[in-house]
Amino acid sequence: HHGIRQVLRDLGIQDINAAYSTGLQWGGEANEQVSSISSPTDGKLIGKVRMATAHDYEQVVLQAQEAFKSWRLVPAPKRGEIVRQIGNKLRQYKEPLGKLVSYEMGKILQEGLGEVQEMIDICDFAVGLSRQLHGLTMHSERPAHRMYEQYHPLGVVGIISAFNFPVAVWSWNAMLAAVCGDVCIWKPSEKTPLVAVAVQHIIKDVLQENELPEGIFNLVVGDAEIGGLMAADERVPLVSATGSTRMGKKVGAVVGARLGKALLELGGNNAIVLTANADLDIAIRAVLFGAVGTAGQRCTTTRRLIIHDSIYDDVKQRLLAAYPKLPVGHPLQEGNLVGPLIDQDAVRGFTDALGRVQQEGGKLLTGGEVLSGTGYETGTYVQPALVEAENHYHTVQEETFAPILYLIRYSGDVQNAIELQNGVRQGLSSSIFSLNMRETEAFLAATGSDCGIANVNIGTSGAEIGGAFGGEKETGGGRESGSDAWKIYMRRQTNTINYSTQLPLAQGIKFDI
Ligand code: UN1
Questions:
Q1: Where is the signal peptide (predicted)?
Q2: pLDDT in tens, 374-429
Q3: Interface predicted TM-score (ipTM) of this complex, two decimals
Q4: Atom of ligand 1 nearest to the CA of 118
Q5: Which atom, in ligand 1's list, is nearest to the CA of 297?
Q6: How far is Cα 503 from Cα 507, in angstroms, rounded to an integer?
Q7: Which pTM value belongs to this model?
Q8: d(CA 41, CA 296)
């Protein structure tokens, strides 16, 4: 179907049913627990994967630790050279890999290709970074002393990734970790392991071509138990986890209890503020992409639209005109903009939330149907919903990973809109549409948006890789990808060197015997 067998062959996956579990072995082993992966787009079986056991996990950690011993000695720009080759291989495989992302996860092909592009871009970023892992030098308070800091590789980095960005978010972590001299163990979402297997194949080729151990990049396809082992494992100094706040609280607590480092990228409840001074022509386009793109399954999806009284009816009419026309259908078919939800559970989450919000007083304006009939046999396609609601409703306060957009009215000045925007437990992404600089600057000020990402005249989703990505409050506080996010993947060391014949003590302390 849609040539997916050919796609798998193009990716070098000859016999997916022979399956994979770890970075150690490619197929062959007797399978105890096998997971069948079918596409949310048409319900067809794509392949089966052997789930890793605790024993497999143990082997992978040992392999990773062994690889770290040599990888950390490779000069950082030489590590960058390996990442450059990975980026080139990804360019070569962009088309089939993007297709597989689209088919296994359900996002439209444009977004599948965009996801692979994000991987390529972070490779380029990491290559440049490999020559810029620098610390600062400080002036010592003591004569003939020098003080500086340096960054050393950290060790084994655990990466837990989510189904919605099944490969890109891993690459943000893995490519930075790699140039930093770390090795990583990747536990992809159980819902999207095949694309992870495909990526591991690509990586494996690069490592083999360079006679490097495969233990630099490891893959463990497993369930929450494997994630739990990783979180508790003192041999894994950093665990980077993307997913729900519920998952992050568990992982964060376990990592924290052993004083490990956790990089958490969790739920969002992202709002766009439309003030009376918004350019509605661009704003509506941003709202549509943010709210229904990826079928509402991005952590940066626009979930709340905070609209000024004076333009409320206009905005509502424009959205009401657009929503019923949204092309919902097979994501590999050109022209469709909204694919399926990942599975039946997600569909239940969507319909439950719509039921609950209406009980709380919300008004469903359009959409909300689970689609049926030709092309929709899987029961995973839904019509994106528009709901008039109030910010304090329990349902509005939660992140429902589905295309529901809550329209929320505000009056008075922009500070009232900011209060509503900040009035949720999550703090990932936010944006304001206004041509009035007093309003936009208020939104960006210390008393403005409390999110990790705050935009002006662009939407909440689709961040570039060059910036630090992540959010505050229940979003978990982690920052990944660009800017100086690399620092968490290294250990910082402060060095003070005395080249005098004396031993002066800091703080002027006299300690002479
Ligand atoms: C996610 O949904 O976990 O900003 C990541 C965006 C994408 C990344 C989303 N670049 O929407």
A1: none
A2: 999 999 999 999 999 999 999 999 999 999 999 999 999 999 999 999 999 999 99
A3: 0.97
A4: 10
A5: 2
A6: 13
A7: 0.96
A8: 16
